[in-house]
Design brief:
By secondary structure, this protein is α/β, with parallel strands linked by helices. The chain is 39% helix and 19% strand. Helix 4 links the parallel strand 4 and strand 5. The protein binds NADP nicotinamide-adenine-dinucleotide phosphate (NAP).
Length: 246
């Protein structure tokens, strides 16, 4: 089996490549370092030729809604065309839990990406992950204000990138689902509390402010919006374990 991983140098991409190699499949890596640009389609047809499976784990250069929507719409269009031309039998996309219900910011862009994949002629599978452990730090950094760190009050199941990559690799070697597989962390946490634990580990002072107007990846997110459904695959690595190892 020949699997092309697009976004192979990324956080999830590099781990997915390793997991796929563990499955014994032939992996072709694609990123701009390989002179392939999925935004323009440059070099893509050649890179994807001979692929049985195409895995999209790219990410946009910004969380801003217009920029990320432009990125995911262009890249998915180019990738689907190249996958169809190559005669690929399976197209796997990594998306985010909440793409179907958070109507703004980066989530809107991921919904546009999902819509294109659903309409693909190549059989497809969507893997939706909850926010990675690392995203708590990204949100905290975005939320720094003179009076403290502002984060939206919401529930989440932060997940390990390694467990997300394992789920993506598992989906890629399996049959197309024509549907959504969810992967999530083992425990439900409040973002405000997780942020407080992170700041303590970083030795930073200052209060965490629960702020309903604070954005999450450029979006207005409701308290339950980032929780997966009842059939999600739950990983094992806790946020506390990640904090200890970072
Ligand atoms: N962060 C979260 O909490 C979270 C949660 C759920 C799902 N996700 C999803 O996970 C996916 C992967 O995220 P990540 O953090 O692993 O991303 P990342 O580390 O930023 O990696 C992005 C990858 O995309 C490649 N890429 C970007 N622009 C490209 C272009 N124009 N042409 C070719 N390759 C390009 C990059 O390669 P080069 O720069 O080397 O070209 C890199 O390999 C995203 O789609 C995101 O929506 C994220």
């Amino acid at each position: 089996m020949r699997v092309v991983v697009v976004g192979a140098t990324g956080l999830i991409g590099s781990l997915t490549v390793a997991r796929l190699r563990d499955h014994g499949v032939e992996v072709v890596t694609v990123s701009r370092a390989d002179a392939v640009d999925v935004s323009t389609g440059q070099g893509l047809e050649r890179a994807v030729s001979g692929a049985e499976v195409v895995v999209d784990v790219t990410d946009a250069p910004s969380r801003e809604q217009t920029v990320s929507t432009r990125f995911f719409t262009a890249t998915t269009g180019h990738l689907l065309k190249a996958a169809a031309t190559a005669g690929a039998e399976h197209y796997v996309v990594l998306s985010v839990v909440g793409a179907d219900r958070v109507g703004s910011g980066y989530f809107r862009a991921k919904a546009a990406q999902e819509d294109l994949a659903r309409r693909a002629t190549v059989p497809w599978t969507l893997v939706r992950a909850t926010p990675f452990h690392e995203s708590v730090e990204a949100i905290a950094t975005d939320g720094i204000r003179p009076d403290g760190v502002h984060v939206p009050p919401l529930l989440m199941r932060p997940v390990s990138t390694d467990e997300v990559a394992a789920a993506v690799a598992h989906a890629a070697v399996g049959l197309p689902q024509f549907g959504v597989l969810e992967v999530a962390g083992p425990e439900e946490l409040r973002l405000e509390e997780a942020t407080g634990e992170l700041l303590a580990v970083l030795g930073r002072s200052g209060p965490v402010v629960a702020d309903t107007r604070a954005p999450f990846f450029g979006a207005v997110v409701g308290e339950q919006d980032l929780l997966p459904g009842p059939h999600a695959h739950l990983g094992h690595r806790t946020f506390a374990e990640w904090l200890k190892s970072r």
